[in-house]
Amino acid sequence: MTTTAATPGTPASAAPPLLSAQDLHVAFPGRRGAPRARAVDGVDLDIRPGEIVALVGESGCGKTTLARALLGLVPPTGGRVTFAGGPLAYSSRALKAYRRRVQLVLQDPSGSLNPRHTVYDAVAEGLRIHDYGGDERAAVGQALARAGLRPPERFFLRYPHELSGGQRQRVVIAGALVLEPELIVADEPVASLDASVRGEILALLLRLRTELGLSALVVTHDLGLAWNIADRVAVMYLGRIVETGAVEQVLTAPRHPYTQALLSVLPEAPGDPVVLTGEPPDPSRVPSGCRFHARCQVLASGEAARAGVAEDCRTRDLGILSGAGGAQVACHWARARASAPAEKTSAPTEREAEPRE
């Protein structure tokens, strides 16, 4: 894999979290008396000042619901969210103040922008909602310039249909930046863009972190994006984080079979891709034991049985991983291997990737 414009720096691991989820749960009522769907089923996650965390996983694993809960758009059914050391309150006034400091960047700029509003109005909307008392024109121009649209005055009176896809995404980012937030949550920020533009937007996010000290949670199914932009990665499956750690550590030496399967399908991955059987379980009927065991290639191959953990995989829950920055994995087999490093197994070798530039 190759980086975009620059390699992200590493924030001080000792810094207290800016945003934190603690034992977070979000469940939705089932239809006609069906069990509640546990979209987020116990998550601890910390994001520190100046840190970029990538939240990765397949569609339906709960990534977007977790992001919405962190933004206060979905109230949790259990656990709590804290920001800058204080619990998130859900009154209208508290959420309005919170959203000035934490902004959302959506994946589809065409759907995010009102086609009847000019670029100026789109970016100024946040200032007007929050009763900005300064020079609105200067603030809009500064936000557009920071987002890479220069000279900004040239874009003030344009409409979204007059812009390219990359320019529209920069307008969305400018709309988030205009309030000078401390953290942005970017939900698949480059998924709808051409490959030629993706690198530019990722380089922009890295530059904003360097220049403004901005923190970010980047929600994505693209492990290549996580490699290029993140300091730390959290892999999510069926409502829970199953592996987390520094991006180089997780993506070059994945320990959880699910992470290994995700990485195996990348074009540059060595060996044959791992094809998972079946569909992810219904979140209203989360299986006992490891929630991945029904699709796990290690359990199916007999490796877990040879390591003596097959029954644990099927029956014993692994609990919630800590939100701290150290490497962690929710896998009986991976933990058994770690506790017996001298033993040789016939397990698949850990994926080797080229060094991060």
From TrEMBL:
SUPFAM superfamilies: P-loop containing nucleoside triphosphate hydrolases. Keywords: ATP-binding, Nucleotide-binding, Transport. The keyword Lipoprotein does not apply. GO terms for molecular function: ATP binding; ATP hydrolysis activity. PROSITE patterns: ABC_TRANSPORTER_1, ABC_TRANSPORTER_2. Residues 338-357 are annotated as: Disordered. GO terms for biological process: peptide transport; transmembrane transport. Residues 19-263 form the ABC transporter domain. InterPro entries: AAA+_ATPase, ABC_transp_ATP-bind, ABC_transporter-like_ATP-bd, ABC_transporter-like_CS, Oligopep_ABC_C, P-loop_NTPase. It comes from the Bacteria. Belongs to the ABC transporter superfamily. NCBIfam families: oligo_HPY. This is Peptide ABC transporter ATP-binding protein. It comes from Streptomyces minutiscleroticus.
